[in-house]
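Tokenised fold entry reproduced for absentees:

. . .
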Amino acid sequence: MAHRKLALALSVIAAATPVWAASEDRPRPATAPAGTVETRYCMWMAATTGTLIEHVQCWTRDHWARQGVDVDKDWPKEGVRTEG
């Protein structure tokens, strides 16, 4: 019975592990990938007040700049993907 509970607990932990956790081993680029004016750069955003959930936001370089974010500087630690 104890083995069954342990197996169940481990399977829940394995299922809850995010896919991106395994990708942390690969090297991160020093700057954001090159793109066009329409390319959207998706990056992790900090959790807002009242929640602990972080989310991904996708904006163009211009939109990020208006928010005070330097895409090339912040991409290595916050970048997720590009679109477009």
About this structure: The first strand starts at residue 40 and ends at 45. DSSP finds three helices and three strands in the chain.
